[in-house]
């Protein structure tokens, strides 16, 4: 009956983040130090720089999360930390900080899967949402269609065979001169463009209804840019952005709806950085409404990397009795 407070830490890529979450659904603080500006000059995340910056920032971010929540360590029931997948050096910083605090204070330690965190972000603002539902997880490193059977119980029914959706956004953005991070920039440019201007391919994957492939689309965009250059034609950046984005969205929507139909669930959710894409959210919301399926999505700030989502996932692990020992390690390719 008493409140359960989770202190959560996330450092798998280029945000150093900490949060305090109450009873699994209430975010008392959500501190994110984004390193994006630091990596922009290199056109992408530089792992070594990310690790070093995490070390500099992690304690400060944790202290701020506790103080903004009005909490002290003595109020905390468990420390949840992302231990994979992600960049190994980056993950190690969060994992080491969590282990050190846990060891010094005796507060239980819980390792959380990053993707489980992304999915759990949906529970923050949708208090009524409970499994089972289907979730499309699209981020810089992952494109998964997941059946969320119950808390902590997942079945991946679709995955990418090559590039992740966010990776395709980032690579295409770089090619058309929009820079890093590509997703939000393509999202914005696409609003001024015509999605029907260029017909890019919608890839089907042999042998799987739900798997994704985005590298062919990326190559098609690069070929298109090359042929324009050869012919001396000017490129319309907004049209390329809109047409590329439409090709990604069409495939994501088609696979998602096929899964919703096959499994017969009346709830569908999205998660991950690409889930903050305005056109993707709009398309999925519309198609779900047509079918009488409830559509759930986290606010954009809970789509991209944050620690609140790790605190939510950590809470459901906590009440199921999951605890980790001090042998917890960073696992860069951790499976869901
Ligand atoms: O979940 P996330 O913050 O980190 C990973 O776990 O990978 O996702 C980052 C990815 C990047 O590829 C970024 O370009 C993409 O999400 N992204 C977007 C948008 N905002 C971020 N992609 C499309 N549209 C957006 N508005
Ligand atoms: Zn992520």
Automatic annotation (TrEMBL):
Its cofactor is Fe(2+). Fe cation binds at residues 114, 118, 305. It catalyses: L-threonylcarbamoyladenylate + adenosine(37) in tRNA = N(6)-L-threonylcarbamoyladenosine(37) in tRNA + AMP + H(+). Keywords: Acyltransferase, Cytoplasm, Iron, Metal-binding, Transferase, tRNA processing. It holds the Pfam family TsaD. Residues 26-311 form the Gcp-like domain. Binds 1 Fe(2+) ion per subunit. Substrate binds at residues 137-141, 170, 183, 187, 277. GO terms for cellular component: cytoplasm. Its main location: cytoplasm. It is found in: Cytoplasm. GO terms for molecular function: iron ion binding; tRNA N(6)-L-threonylcarbamoyladenine synthase activity. Gene3D superfamilies: 3.30.420.40. InterPro entries: ATPase_NBD, Gcp-like_dom, KAE1/TsaD, TsaD. Its EC number is 2.3.1.234. The keyword Translocase does not apply. One of its GO terms (biological process) is tRNA threonylcarbamoyladenosine modification. Required for the formation of a threonylcarbamoyl group on adenosine at position 37 (t(6)A37) in tRNAs that read codons beginning with adenine. Is involved in the transfer of the threonylcarbamoyl moiety of threonylcarbamoyl-AMP (TC-AMP) to the N6 group of A37, together with TsaE and TsaB. TsaD likely plays a direct catalytic role in this reaction. Belongs to the KAE1 / TsaD family. This is tRNA N6-adenosine threonylcarbamoyltransferase. The gene is tsaD.
